[in-house]
Amino acid sequence: MNPAKKLIAPKLRGSDKSAQMLLKALIDGKKITNHEISKYATNSVKDILGDLKRDYGLNLLDEWVRDPKTDIRYKKYYINKSGIAYARLLLSYFTTKNRAILAKLKIRVKAKEPKNV
Fold this sequence. Notes:
Blueprint: E1 7-8, H1 16-27, E2 32-33, H2 45-54, E3 61-66, E4 73-78, H3 84-96, H4 99-105, E5 110-111
Antiparallel strand pairs: 1-5, 2-4, 3-4
């Protein structure tokens, strides 16, 4: 049996489609805030970005921005040029669900536990 078939990918809070839209925006160089929930069809922008950073190893950078009208500070998330290739591989994983890409990315994955017989 192929060892890649035994791997279970880390769970992602939110849908795969939303993760794909977020990754495409990051690859295009856009800066994403937590409040852009209607643009990315999810209520959990921060959760998805946190999971991509923690479980999938995406190198997310952030900066604090102050809104001049309301004087409220919030974070904008983005990736730099060195992280774009990694984000493209992650995007290809989320579109195809090919587990061989996980092995290429060296993502910490759990092996399937045998069922109790």
